[in-house]
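Let us practice reading a record.
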Amino acid sequence: MTAGDPGPSAARSPAAGPGAEPRARRRRGVIFLAMLAAGVVFAALFATLAVRFRPHLQVQPPVRVSRIPGNVPTALANLMQLSPVPSTPAPGFTLTDQHGRPVSLATFRGRAVVLEFMDTHCADICPLVSQEYIDAYHDLGAAAAEVVFVAVNVNPYHGQIADVAAYSRAHQLTTIPSWHFLTGPAGSLRAVWRGYDIAVAAPNPHADIVHTSVVYFIDPDGRERYVAAPMADHSSKGEAFLPAGQLSGWGRGIALVARDLASTGGSCCD
């Protein structure tokens, strides 16, 4: 037998017969059809199970942070990242407002205080918070008389009374009767920042001021009760914005928390 000769045993193999290739194609066809049928059955079974057990597959509702005011919906509280804080006296301070009048935190005892930290030259998140303050004031209605809206300046290079007054006018915060944009000497401002854990990076008069953005809610007894974290999206050009629904939602959330504090008279839930 020479190399390459299949030998006599190969001649007796059924695969060598003239009908071997058609039979192989038929077998492959049968296998393909069987696999296709199995796939159809599996898909139908999966669809049936999905319909039957759909209630158990639904996304669970968002988790609610404990000890936040009951009048604030969970979704809104999550949007604001609203959190309770230990009920401790808010750090006191005395600064000067946009009218040149000395103002201390103790001045506001008996009313709820919404406190934020703003840059007098800010073109990013501070204008958004300003609009949220205005929306909150209008949402409060008659309860607005029991709430004070306050901001402390974080720009040590533009901390004159004229600076906080100009910002207040430019962003229509002067339409809030209880609005106070407070400023003072750089040393006094830094002391307030430290008291409220506000980090400020102000390398020079021409650089952007980077600072912690947080809203404190202080009850009528002068105690810290809640904090929230303002937010912003940015366009392709770097401009800060929030969708209209989120912007108005923030205003409503601020109003709801402030109204709750004002109505409870500072009674603590701890």
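A brief commentary: DSSP finds eight helices and twelve strands in the chain.
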